[in-house]
Amino acid sequence: MxxxxxxxxxxxxxxxxxxxxxxxxxxxxxxxxxxKDIIKTTFSDKSVFxxxxxxxxxxxxxxxxxxxxxxxxxxxxxxxxxATRDRISDSRYKLCKEIIKIDHHIVLDNYGDINVVEExxxxxxxxxxxxxxxxxxxxISLVGATALYTGTVTDTGNFxxxxxxxxxxxxAGKLLSYGVNVEHIDQLLSVQSLRAVRLKxxxxxxxxxxxxxxxxxxxxRLIIKYFNVGYDEAASLVSxxxxxxxxxxWALIIKYPKDIRVRxxxxxxxxxxxxxxxxxGGHHKAAGATLKSSSKIRQFxxxxxxxxxxxxxxxxxxx
Length: 319
Ligand SMILES: [Mn+2]
Fold this sequence. Notes:
- This protein is of the alpha/beta class.
- Helix content is 39%, strand content 17%.
- The chain contains 11 helices and 11 strands.
- The strands form 2 sheets. It has a 6-stranded mixed beta sheet. A 5-stranded parallel beta sheet has the order 2-1-3-4-5, covered by helices on one side.
- A hairpin with a 3-residue loop joins strand 10 (281-282) and strand 11.
- The structure holds manganese (II) ion (MN).
- Residues 27, 81, 104, 123-124, 155 line the site of manganese (II) ion.
- Manganese (II) ion binds at residues 27, 81, 104, 123-124, 155.
């Protein structure tokens, strides 16, 4: 089994550097800091560093290290939760002596010298929990268990997403046995800024629904500035319009400095074709489009409304 190979490599190297992906999420941070804790708790004399992008809302999981380029050349790189090499957040993984990939995304790029990938497991943090249990020499502290549990919670959407099964709960239960404070983690992950809540209220107050049930809101540059939020943060609010019974398709239209970008979501008809018509694309139920100017919004809304109309007609044939 490849876990024993990973164990051997960790034992072999004095310096180990843990990498994650660009725009890190809870599972990325959780697996980086969780593995750091496993290595440090088991082999206290090793130097273990975590590199990557800083994300303030996840900083309770652990603090990133800033290290010089010359440390990399004799180090073992372990890249976590990252499907392809262009997604690795620090390109200095190339300087390392050997690379291990540990991940749960669909395999597109076996960039590691050793690749440990389990596509069906719902979090990399759970894969690391299996690694921990695979060898009785491996140990973890409460700090590491908290990191791994946090990543499990975020990547499974609080154990709500597809892929959650008996094994998920057993592994999560094992992490809890180290004394993880689930309520505290939930509070840290749920906290929001006042301006973020105010912007949400703006979206709820101003969104529109077309005749056939396409829900959308528009956020312009002035609003972004007024609420002092990033464009990405604003774009994530598309989820506010999800799950309205009458609206199987919803979108957030955001006026960026140079163009207008639309995030489209659906729990009814496929929307990728609509997105493609407007210089975009994506998945069947989650896609993005680009509008060249405000004058295109009306046509886009009309097309989306039509899509919902056709979908509803198919769903509820008129008798
Ligand atoms: Mn993940």
